[in-house]
Amino acid sequence: AKITFITSDEQSITVEGNSGNVMELAVKNKIKGIDGNCGGVCSCATCHVHVLPEYWDKIGAPSELENDMLEFDENISDHSRLSCQIQVTDAIDGVVLKVAK
Ligand code: FES
């Protein structure tokens, strides 16, 4: 799947992956602002992204556990997700994610 990240300095970077989760893909490609400090176990929120609204249906809503974690982040939006909780599959090909500040 091809995934595009928009960084906080407005750069648009498209990367490709076929396995793992979106946080791992971002870290591997050195996407600025996605740190993945907890290693992808949904307990740090350093992998927070805002899904562009038109892609929200493709990605879907966070789980209850993920929501609880997101609530600690002051920049939460209606389209917030923790990228370590999004699996990289063909189902999300073409989505655009804005890296949260
Ligand atoms: Fe820690 Fe996603 S990497 S919550």
TrEMBL record:
Pfam families: Fer2 (PF00111). Keywords: 2Fe-2S, Iron, Iron-sulfur, Metal-binding. This is 2Fe-2S ferredoxin. It comes from the Bacteria. Coiled coil: none annotated. The lineage of its organism: Bacteria, Pseudomonadati, Bacteroidota, Flavobacteriia, Flavobacteriales. Its cofactor is [2Fe-2S] cluster. It comes from Aureibaculum marinum. InterPro entries: 2Fe-2S_ferredoxin-like_sf, 2Fe-2S_ferredoxin-type, Adrenodoxin-like, Beta-grasp_dom_sf. Transmembrane segments: none annotated. The keyword Iron applies. GO terms for biological process: P450-containing electron transport chain. Residues 1-101 form the 2Fe-2S ferredoxin-type domain. One of its GO terms (molecular function) is 2 iron, 2 sulfur cluster binding. The keyword Metal-binding applies. Signal peptide: none annotated. Belongs to the adrenodoxin/putidaredoxin family.
